[in-house]
Amino acid sequence: WDAYDARARTKFSRPLVSAERLSPTTHAYVLQGVDRSGRRADFDLIVADKTFTWERGSTERLTRNGKPLTAEDVQGIIFDPLVRARLKGAKHLIAVGTASEEGEPTEEKHRAGRRAEQTARWLSTVTDDQMPLWTLNLGQYSQPCEACDTEETSWQRPFLVIAVQNAAWGTDLAEALADALSSAPNLPSPERYSAYAMVR
After folding, report:
1. pTM value?
2. What DSSP string runs through 110-174?
3. How large is the greatest C-alpha to C-alpha distance in the chain, in angstroms?
4. Bigger pLDDT: 154 or 44?
């Protein structure tokens, strides 16, 4: 617990995590986190480019450069063969929902949860039926982060999924993921959002 707490306290002094180009429309951040018992898990945070975002007010539709995308667009453009190959090797997949800072907090938290559920539905069409699938509701964006607004993404309401690539036996994935997302100042730390609800 002391190691976990110390890491949380010093995260803002840590260097930025670099994103690798995964496909023409996505980047991936390779992260590690530990739960409160010290058990480790490895994650790929896969983020659609900044041109993709949730349509404002919508829980079912993404846009690209302001133009709405169909479900077929999402499956073919975002979940292209390179992304699907990365997802295929995962032990678990986590569909994430976020909402931007505008709007009433309770309503936006609910909206973020619905977005996570929609992302899970899209994921279920491009992965194996046996793949364990989780949703993570981060809620409403609330804390400014200058380091987060990079050429790759802005953390207000991005489209992102998380692949759990490895995890020690008995790892609390929610705790380990929270630690991983809090490990650098340019990641979507739970502290910058109003919720952290992970459900299988």
Report:
1. 0.86
2. HHHHHHHHHHHHHHHTTS-TTS-EEEEEEEEB-S--GGG--SS--SSS--EEEEEEEE-TT--HH
3. 47
4. 44
